[in-house]
Amino acid sequence: MESESLQRRRSSSVTCNNAPVREKRPKRSEVLAKKKTVEELIKAARAQKDHLAHFPEFCHFHAKGLSLCLKSGHGNKLSSTVKTYIQSLLKLNMEGPYGSEWPEEEKVKRREMVDHEAHYVFVHEVANSNADEMTTMLTAAKTSTCCLKNSGPLVGFVQYRFVLEEEIPVLYVYELQLEPRVQGKGLGKFLMQLLEFMAQKNCMGAVMLTVQKANVLAVDFYINREDE
Predict the structure, then answer these.
(1) Residue 131: phi, psi to the nearest 5?
(2) Is the model's pLDDT at 99 over the cut of 60?
(3) How far from 165 is each of 1, 35, 123, 198, 203, CA to CA, in Å?
(4) pTM, entire model
(5) Which SUPFAM superfamilies match (predicted)?
(6) Domain of 170, in residue numbers
């Protein structure tokens, strides 16, 4: 399986006569202090129960015939119904790109799905009868999640984690999965923007993800995001 991932860029310093310059190494105490700071950032980000609560303007998506609401979740608190939905949507969207490797990859994704460090944003449809109540909730901003108890069915989800990559604290997007019927309507862009704000709020150095080269639509989507 070939996949795209961020790579470290290496550079070297030289003098005008091409002789290498010795860069001053940081003191061990400085290295340890920096490491501790980064670890504390990641620990604090992981401990938050609802990252969506800081961004009420992202709790609702209404565009191109879609009326959706967002809700936070955690890998170790998923209901059996939600687990089944996640597995089904992953298979629908990813079995094709993975091909013969899917059976093994599916096992990996099932383990990742319920990890205690896995954070989720779930996307639900909003029933027409709840539209007015939803608008009131958004205006009042009295709730950390915009989804009502009787919100409609799931149409997608994001799984993300706060991790250390090459000594940099990052928000790593493990999954961004949407049902085909809600794709191509700006929802993916909306969710990526939310994740970028979450990363900034938690002082992460970057947002990272891995995309298969075989998944052409996903590759194009993320490349276009970088160009914006």
Answers:
(1) -60, -45
(2) yes
(3) 21, 12, 28, 17, 14
(4) 0.79
(5) Acyl-CoA N-acyltransferases (Nat)
(6) 48-227
